Every structure is written in structure tokens, then in C-alpha cells.
Input
Amino acid sequence: MELIKFDAAHSGVTITEQMKAEAAAANALLHSGKGAGNDFLGWVSLPSSIDEQELTAIENVAAKLRGKAEIVICIGIGGSYLGAKAVLEAMTDSFESIKKHHDNPTILFAGENISEDYTYELLAATAERSIAAIVISKSGTTTEPAIAFRLIKAEIEKRYGKAEAAERIVAITDKARGALKTLADKEGYPTFVIPDNVGGRYSVLTPVGLLPLAVAGVDIRALVAGACDMESLCGEKTPVEENPAAQYAIVRNAIYRSGKKIEILGSYEPKLLYVAEWWKQLYGESEGKEGKGIFPASVTLTADLHSMGQYIQEGERTLFETIISVAESKHTVRVETDSENLDGLNFLAGKRISEINKMAELGVRIAHVDGGVPNMRVEIARIDERTIGQLLYFFEKACGISGYLLGVNPFNQPGVEAYKKNMFALLDKPGYEEESKKIKARL
Ligand code: PA5
Output
């Protein structure tokens, strides 16, 4: 089994004994449960603890939804959305939506925005097709998915009646608390539990990610197996020299301490765009607090070389980048010879597109390093469930270690509350009368 390779040769950082000791201590804290946020460490040993019974239960419910619906609407936001979206995009043919025949139900997402037009268009687009829904909220009280679910639940009940709605709606939430749990119990929806000790952004390998992915036909067993590969490689007993997650955490913190505050995650495979979105949420919510933290940004290449590329090469020198490099493509496409060669491209004739892509990647790395942008590389063998599972756990483990190196609690998100308070006050939510007066006076 090929494993993720981490390469910091162009980062400008030499890993010292002191850094290794700090990272080993941070990793040990994740395992001993003695660090900040220790209520939320369930993800550390999650991959290896997923048992046959749990996988079978997820696959059975997925099979039922697959049998009933052409479209399954997945409702959730943040960690209750991005993991499934990231893996789904990575595993899906780029042109699936225009194919005439689909082997799997289409997964659509809702509740990750409050756009009226998006909501209208989603309901309109699904009007002629059979639908089901998976509603996901750990707290069970998040406003955005709750609004979307109210509308989609009403639509399902209108079309199929209440009894059948309970066959077409699955809830994934806390085992005991929250409005969604109360509602699911009352309506008799099949329910999966998000473990208490797994926070939203670390929940992709719970039913939060696994159920929608199983519905979409993704091999969730291979995904979990990939995560298990990294759970053992990045474990407490692995020396830092052999632990890619610890090395990544060390190097990004060393660069941050040298004054570079923005990390750009890039990839030359457009399918990995949402892996970068998931990564941004994981690192942004975990590290951006107490006036500290690397700002996580992302680019898709080579497209963004023709937009952000100018800034990365020559703008303010506060950036560093991490590239997810994919060693081999799934398909083969070669550049053909053209007898007229009017476009001057015959020097590429016979080459695979992936060879050209790789030379772009290498050329960009050298250009960016020359331009003062330190580079790290995370190489996966190819894009499949196993390697994506590896990548997810690699980034999770590195994030936990990195948060501790930074000196923050990587498992809370107190800053997310500020906007909610203001929004509720502006919407006159009962209980917010005082805040409402104050905020309206400021408009
Ligand atoms: O990582 C997190 O905890 C958050 O991003 C949550 O996943 C997000 O706010 C959604 O929360 P919930 O699942 O409670 O609706």
C-alpha cells in the first residue's frame, strides 16, 4: 500500500531536535487526552474503531435511500457538510452531471447557505425527480440547515405523506440533545449519532460523511482503510522522522514563526477543490483564535496561475504554499502530432497531459520558491478512496498537532457565535430583545 509522502525540501525549514520534541509532545497530548479541548479527541482513534456493525448499518440505510430516490439532498453546514462534499467531488467523474445514465443517486447539498435563489432553484430542479434527505447537525440547532430542512421536509411530506417521509428522511445528530433530535424522535426518522467526542470538522469518518458517501456509491470501506493507514503511520509511537503529519505541523509552524502568515493549499487536480475547502474549514476554525493562526487559503492550478499566480509570485511576501501532488492519473490522454503544427505544439506530441501538468507543477514550485514562497508537498499515489482517506486523516492529525504547537485549543470555535448573536438580534428572535435594540441603533 502506497502511503502519503511529505516533502519539505523546498520549505527553507530544517527540522531541529527541539521542533521534533515539541511535535512529539503535542502528538502525545492528542493520545493521552491531557491537552486543551480533550473532550473532543474521539477522532484520533476513530478510523480503527469503526466496526463492521457500524459500516453495515450505514450501508443498509444507504441502500434504502438509493432504492427510493434519484436525488438525495444532504442538509448541513461546516463540518456537517464539507467532508462529504470534498470526498464526493474527488471521487466523482467531472462530467457526471451531463451523463445520460447515472449509476448512483445524485447528491445535492442544502443548508450551507441562506440564499433564497439557491433554495428556490433546488426545489424547482428536484420537482420532477424522486427525492430523499439526510439532515445533519451535531448541535441540532444550527439555523442555516434548520431553515433548509423545514422546507425540504415539507416538500417530502407534501409529495409522499408523513409515513413515507419517515422512510425518506434520515437524521444525523447528537445522541440526546437539540431540536433535530427531538424532531427526529417525534417523526420516527432513522437516526445516526455523532459521537460526543468528535467535533464537526473532524467528523467526516462518522456517519456525517460516510452515509452521504455510501448513498453516492463511494467505497466507504476503502476510505476508512485509508484513514487507518494514516492513523497507524501518524501514531504516538512513530518517531517524528517517520510521521508525515508531525513533520507538516512542524514546518508550517516554523514558517509561521518566521513571519509568513498565509498558507495556500494548491492542487493541479480540479477534483480536489473541495478537499481544499474542507482543509480551510479544518485549519481556519481550529487555529484562528486568540489573535493567532495561519490564514488558510486555496488555489486550483493551473487555472489560478492566471489569476492569483501574479500575487503569489510577486505580491506581499507573507505567503507559503502546500501542494497536494497526485503521482498518477487514472486515464491516459496524449497530445497528438499535427502535420501543420500551426500552434507550435509538436514538441509536446506523444506526451501525456499528466506529464505536462507535472512539469507545470515543478516549474511553478521553483518559480515560487525563487519568488520567496516556501513550498511543501503532500504526495498521494492517485485519487481514490484509499488515498483520500489517508489525506483526510493526515490533515486532521497534523491540525491537532499544529494547534498545540501554536498554543491554542484546536477543538473549539468560540468566534463562530458572534455573527449568530447579531443575526438573531436583527431577526427579533425571542430572548434577544435587548441585543436587538442595541444592534438596530448601530445600523
Ligand atoms: O467544526 C465545527 O464544529 C463547525 O463547523 C460545525 O460543524 C458547524 O457549525 C455545523 O454545526 P452543527 O453540526 O452543530 O449544525
Observations:
- The mean pLDDT is 97.
- The CA atoms of residues 180 and 186 lie 10 Å apart.
